[in-house]
Specification:
By secondary structure, the chain is of the alpha+beta class. It has 19 helices and 18 strands. Helix 8 packs antiparallel against helix 9. The radius of gyration is 63 Å and the shape is flat.
């Protein structure tokens, strides 16, 4: 077989247990469980029985005390209720009696009360009439005073009117002079206003003429400037529109030749008859073409033959002539080789150089990624079957990378294979004759241990799966050129991958390994085979003149809890090293497609945009000239308006002065008139009349305010009269029939005092009961605490596991009859140190006793799975658990004296299976250690046989309790 692959299952041990130091394993129980009674009784804790008895007594007595207290408090509460009810009835009866006596007395004094009421009413009416009469007298006085004032005013005004009639002519002359003065002032105002208007109009006309002259001259200048700017723009625009020649560089795409794989290959009859035995489960011979879901995969397995010379229909398009013509996308189909048209570099007799290895690594990496992506895109059912349990169904894979990290892995794998003489039909596993530390899985584990540790810590609570596997094939060449080796490797990988995609239920191991979505890197190693290896039967090497190679594909990756998003996030981190094949791949890609720059010239017809750019400066100049022209016009208009505004302001000032002169003349005329009238003694009748009326109105308003106060005083006086008379009436009635309200209030207060006294008695009783209860409880707590301290000292040598107790006595003597270990089970009389007394009995394994009412649990053997990083290869596309072989370890003696194996190791036999290694690390699993209680120095001294029984008992105990020593996660 040319191709082989392996899957290394690794288990991560989860160890949980207790370390038992010096002492003998014993068990305690509170019930007789099919053991000797005397021995069992010796194991019963007397201190614990005393504690339980005291606890029960305490509970009983406290419950009795509480019951008695409750009874006494209930009796007191009942007595209170009865006493309160009786006192309430007596109080109500006394109140009813008082009310009845009061009603009888009222009936007896009814006549006297009526007489007193009539007298009170008459007195109130008399005093109220007197108050009203006094108020009316005051109001009448006010009205009389107002009438007197009104008459006086009328008389004074009549006198003024009479005097004014006597001076009427003098007043008429004075008023005539006043009117003449007003007329003269008005005439003067009119003439001055007209003069100011004439001056303003003349100045405005002159300003307008000046402005029009300046405006005409400026417009002429502006027109000339704009004309010149437009002419300049037209000239520049004409030049800008002329076509011109420019130097240029043209992009010329160059597509290199790339060979196209062919699937309809023809091979000699003996090849067809012999067929290819691919590693696909369920097929022991050649695979019928009819079994393939996709016929294009059927003939790809002929790439397994050592030389492409077996292909008889060598199509020219399928024959590359150099490395640059090798396809990179890895579509299904084989390539032909033509030595006459091989232009690649030679390979020396010493084999591939380091640079040539990197070229082949670059190609192989591209082909593996091409296979993964093509299957996902066009043959999805195969991809989903492989990743159905990994969280990547219908989730595209991340491309593999080949980096300095994986180169180191690959180089170490090659070095170890060479060192231990592993041939091209054997994987880098123990079965190939190498130690465990030299296997590919150990190399990868060492390289990734820090990364795995960090991921386990980061994803605490999630499962971190390790995807590790190895594919193996053989590469050789009939002609020692790099191209021949590359074609041979290409065809071999075609058979190793596409040839194994028979149908979704039958997928070869190589294809399964590569389709794992969890892998992220691949270390591709090239091991030069020795003559002894190539000479072996089944080596597949047909031409031994040139070096042949075993090519290893060691894939590495992690799957985070079968979560595609988390896994891809980790895959895209910068933790996988630096690529070492980018340069080689880019060289091939450039040869297959690149763009050349060719120099030349071309005529360019300016576009509107070009013209716009070329004339932008002149256009801006024209715009500036127009803007300046408008600015000059705006400046003239602004100056003209400023002059008009100034003239208008001067005109307004002149008009204001004219008005001011007029006002001064009018004021002077009025002053002269008033002085003349005063000299004649003439009074202004209208003003004098208004003065007299105002004085009268002020008097009326004052009288109204006073009248309101008089009314309020009258009302208050009447109210006081009624209040005083009613008070006298109430006193008289109370004298005739005294009130019983004070006596009723006193009786009600006495009843409330009775209720309060009963409540106080009940509260005091409850307080005394609570104190007595707490005192008794404290006494029991003190006693129980003392018992508990003694019991804690006795249990210092006990270890508690789940519902079971393991007692470690302080001193042990072991008897041995030669075949069976004997153990002493002592009774502890001292809480701090166990005596080695009691009956000696034969013990094969400790009997684990549950708590009361449970029966002993039979001891179960414990099988420990050791993490051996074992390699397991099975010819199947299914994920398989490693084969476990039991070896001699600790032998546990059973009850009948026989021995059973209680430990085993896992040693997986490496074959050529196709499934990925899955190492599972549960991030939240922590190994725990139980530290035993501190013991005296004497109790720690035991002989070797005692220590063996301790270890045996602890192992059997942990097995019985179901504690898992190791767990193995299976990553399908």
């Amino acid at each position: 077989m040319r191709n082989s692959n392996t899957n290394n299952w690794r288990s991560t041990a989860l160890i949980a247990g207790a370390i038992l130091t010096a002492g003998v394993v014993t068990t305690t129980s509170t019930t007789d469980v099919h053991a000797d009674n005397s021995q069992n009784n010796a194991q019963v804790s007397n201190g614990q029985v005393t504690y339980d008895q005291v606890r029960a007594t305490a509970d009983q007595q406290l419950a009795q005390l509480q019951s008695a207290n409750d009874s006494k408090e209930a009796q007191q509460a009942t007595a209170n209720e009865q006493s309160n009810a009786a006192d309430l009835a007596q109080t109500n009866a006394q109140i009813d009696q008082l009310k009845a006596s009061h009603a009888a007395l009222e009936q007896e004094q009814a006549g006297a009360i009526a007489q007193a009421q009539a007298s009170t009413t008459a007195s109130i009416e008399a005093q109220t009439s007197a108050a009203n009469a006094e108020y009316q007298q005051q109001i009448n006085a006010q009205q009389q005073n107002e009438a007197t004032q009104r008459a006086a005013n009328d008389q004074q005004y009549a006198q003024a009117v009479s005097q004014a009639a006597e001076n009427q002519q003098a007043v008429a002359d004075i008023n005539a002079q006043y009117q003449q003065a007003l007329s003269d002032a008005a005439n003067t105002q009119t003439s001055q206003a007209q003069a100011a208007a004439n001056n303003y109009n003349s100045a405005v006309a002159k300003e307008n003429d000046t402005y029009q002259g300046k405006l005409s001259a400026q417009k002429a200048t502006n027109a000339e400037n704009i004309k010149n700017a437009e002419a300049s723009l037209a000239s520049v625009t004409a030049n800008a529109n002329k076509p011109y020649e420019v130097a240029t560089t043209n992009d010329v795409a160059v597509t290199g030749r790339v060979a196209k794989p062919q699937t309809d290959v023809k091979v000699p009859a003996y090849v067809t008859k012999y067929g290819i035995h691919l590693e696909v489960r369920g097929y022991n011979g050649a695979i019928p073409v009819s079994d393939y879901t996709y016929p294009e995969f059927a003939n790809t397995y002929y790439g397994e033959y050592p030389d492409s010379a077996v292909i008889t229909n060598k199509a020219a398009e399928s024959t590359p002539h150099d490395i640059s013509e090798m396809p990179l996308d890895f579509q299904p189909g084989l390539l032909s080789y033509d030595a006459k048209n091989d232009h690649s570099e030679k390979v020396s007799a010493d084999g591939l150089t380091a640079d040539q290895v990197q070229v082949l690594r670059a190609l192989a990496l591209s082909w593996e990624n091409g296979f993964r992506n093509n299957v996902f895109k066009n043959y999805r059912e195969f991809y989903n079957v492989v990743n159905k349990n990994d969280g990547f169904v219908n989730v595209a894979p991340v491309d593999l990378v080949s980096t300095d990290f994986t180169d180191n892995i690959a180089n170490q794998v090659v070095a170890n294979r060479t060192k231990y003489n592993v041939d091209n039909n054997s994987h880098t596993v123990k079965d190939s004759g190498m130690p465990t530390e030299a296997t590919y899985s150990s190399i990868i584990n060492n390289a990734t241990q820090n990364l795995k540790k960090n991921l386990t810590s980061e994803f605490n609570g999630k499962t971190v799966y390790t995807d590790v596997n190895e594919n193996l094939t053989t590469m050789q060449a009939g002609t020692p050129t790099l191209l021949n080796y590359a074609i041979n490797l290409y065809n071999s990988m075609q058979g190793m991958y596409y040839g194994e995609l028979v149908n979704p239920t039958h997928i070869g191991g190589h294809a399964v390994n590569l389709l794992r979505a969890g892998i992220r890197t691949v270390g591709i190693g090239f091991q030069k085979l020795t003559d002894e290896m190539t000479a072996k039967n089944g080596s597949g090497v047909s031409d031994r003149k040139n070096p042949s190679y075993a090519v290893t594909f060691d894939h590495v990756g992690f799957n985070i809890d079968h979560d595609a998003n988390l896994t891809k996030e980790v895959q895209n981190r910068n933790v996988w090293g630096t690529s070492t094949v980018d340069a080689q791949l880019n060289t091939i890609k450039t040869a297959q497609y690149h763009v050349n720059k060719v120099p030349g010239t071309k005529t360019v017809t300016p576009t509107a945009t070009d013209v716009q750019k070329a004339t932008a400066s002149e256009q801006q100049k024209l715009a500036d000239v127009k803007a300046q022209a408008q600015q000059s016009l705006d400046a003239l208009a602004s100056a003209h308006q400023a002059s008009l505004n100034k003239l208008e302001q001067q005109y307004n000032d002149a008009k204001a002065q004219v008005k001011a002169n007029y006002d001064v003349a009018v004021t002077k005329a009025a002053s002269v008139r008033d002085a003349a009238l005063k000299a004649t003694g003439v009074v202004d009748l209208q003003a004098y009349k208004a003065q007299l009326d105002s004085a009268y109105q002020n008097l009326v308003k004052a009288d109204q305010v006073a009248a309101q106060k008089l009314a309020a005083d009258r009302d208050a006086k009447i109210t006081n009269i009624k209040k005083a008379e009613n008070a006298k009436l109430d006193a008289k009635i109370n004298e005739l029939v005294p009130s019983v309200d004070p006596q009723i209030k006193q009786l009600q207060d006495q009843h409330q005092a009775v209720i309060a006294h009963g409540d106080a008695v009940l509260a005091e009783l409850k307080a005394e009961n609570k104190a007595a209860y707490n005192k008794l409880a404290e006494q029991f707590n003190v006693q129980l605490a003392a018992i508990q301290r003694r019991e804690d000292a006795k249990r210092a040598n006990e270890v508690r596991l789940a519902n079971n107790t393991v007692v470690l006595p302080s001193a042990v003597k072991v008897a041995n009859d030669g075949n069976v270990d004997t153990v002493a089970f002592p009774t502890a009389s001292n809480p701090l140190q166990a005596e080695t007394t009691g009956r000696v009995q034969t013990v094969s394994a400790p009997s684990i006793v549950k708590t009361a009412t449970q029966t002993p649990i039979a001891v179960a053997p414990v099988v420990t799975t050791v993490n051996h990083a074992a390699e397991n290869t099975v010819k199947s596309n299914e994920s398989s658990a490693p084969v476990v072989t039991q070896t001699a370890a600790v032998a546990a003696t059973t009850n009948n004296g026989t021995q059973i194996s209680v430990a085993s190791t896992a040693d997986n036999k490496a074959t050529k299976a196709d499934n990925s290694e899955k190492s599972v690390v549960k991030a939240d699993t922590v190994a725990k250690k139980q530290t035993p209680a501190k013991k005296s120095e004497s109790s720690q001294k035991v002989d070797q046989s005692s220590m063996s029984i301790v270890a045996l008992a602890a192992t059997a105990l942990l097995g019985t309790l179901g504690i898992t020593y190791s767990s193995k996660k299976r990553h399908n």
